[in-house]
């Protein structure tokens, strides 16, 4: 079952249901956006995920938490080759195939070396290194268990200007799941930034006002990505009226007050905050399960979702910076000339997509109607 946001009272609903600003334009044209945090998975999953990502985004930073994980530059190149092979066979317009540019990440482990970082920086395909605290989310068992032992690696990342992307949650079982992001900031992140002041850091998929405030308090080397689900929804959408598995992600949706802060900073025009969907595919049966997987699938509808969020607070004019400019500038990459147009016309989100042969993949907001859609070029 997918949540119908209109069924929740005004005190519990998200800002996405606010009345659309009277000055909302009929359409907006943006530089083609980039997604600075996406999960494409591997193998047959790529037949679905790559096509969806390529139709909306130019560059995408691909997460390395495969099985086994991507731990070296050689493995990163091999993974990129598999993505490009899937792209070649995708049933999409050839122009998307020509412009799609997957950027790779290394999975930081307890055995990663400074030499691994050097080779990654020299590879031309590795954009960053990903820190998963062990056990924090899907396929994170190989994550770091002792950050103090990674001093040499962080120093190498500073030297070779390779950014660190962080899943910012503690994994201690005694810490409440709604407090794990704040706890990570207080106990780990502040110290890491202090020890490595020249290290570029992206606090990924932030979910709290605490994380937003932390990023705002740091210099330009610390930034954050924000997902569409954390802008549009709060924990009531996940829990009121029964648990909604397709709203379950990690970090988990938080209180409405945190959601409002995320909307404020995302639409503020501050270049520290930019688009990262954290789109994460799981077969429908694996989500709708007594022990359902964490992750929201949004790659196919991400831009209408973001447009809906920005328009809900009358800031649709700020979307291009967030989606198409700020991330590229942070990573030191050129801005994109290609354009994409969003129209203020309703679209119905598909109920599912074919996935892994006989399976299906259920997107976020499946079956619901969004007020914005991507204009199809003739």
Task: Spell out the blueprint of helices and strands.
Elements: E1 27-31, E2 35-38, H1 46-56, E3 59-62, H2 73-88, H3 94-99, E4 101-107, H4 114-123, E5 126-131, H5 151-159, E6 164-166, H6 180-195, E7 201-203, H7 209-217, E8 222-226, H8 228-232, H9 235-239, H10 256-266, E9 273-275, H11 284-287, H12 302-312, H13 319-331, E10 339-343, E11 347-348, E12 353-355, E13 359-361, E14 369-370, E15 373-374
Helix pairs in contact: 1-2, 4-5
Which properties best describe this structure?
single chain; 378 residues; 3-stranded antiparallel beta sheet; 13 helices; 15% strand; globular
Task: Describe it.
The chain is an alpha/beta fold and 378 residues long. The protein is built from 13 helices and 15 strands. It has helices at 46-56, 73-88, 94-99, 114-123, 151-159, 180-195, 209-217, 228-232, 235-239, 256-266, 284-287, 302-312, 319-331; strands spanning 27-31, 35-38, 59-62, 101-107, 126-131, 164-166, 201-203, 222-226, 273-275, 339-343, 347-348, 353-355, 359-361, 369-370, 373-374. Strand 5 (126-131), helix 5 (151-159) and strand 6 (164-166) form a beta-alpha-beta unit. Helix 1 (46-56) packs across helix 2 and helix 4 (114-123) packs parallel to helix 5 (151-159). The chain is globular and about 50 Å long.
